[in-house]
Amino acid sequence: MTEQTAATIHVGVNSSAFASSSAPPPPAIA
User: Fold this and answer.
1) What is the pLDDT along the chain (30 residues), one digit of tens a residue?
2) Rounded CA separation 11/8 (Å)
3) Is the C-alpha dihedral spanning 6, 29, 11, 16 positive or negative?
4) Are the C-beta atoms of 14 and 30 separated by less than 8 Å?
5) How far apart (Å, rounded) are the C-alpha atoms in residues 13 and 17?
6) What residues contact residue 30 under an 8 Å CB cut-off, 6+ apart?
7) What is the pTM assigned to this prediction?
8) Closest by alpha carbon to 17, among 29, 4, 5?
């Protein structure tokens, strides 16, 4: 996995989690 791919997945998961829940994202994602 390249840095670019990791960053894309990281942002995608963060956005999805944030949109799905009003609670702040867990430290693992943040």
Assistant:
1) 566 666 566 666 656 555 555 566 666 655
2) 5
3) positive
4) yes
5) 6
6) 14, 24
7) 0.20
8) 29
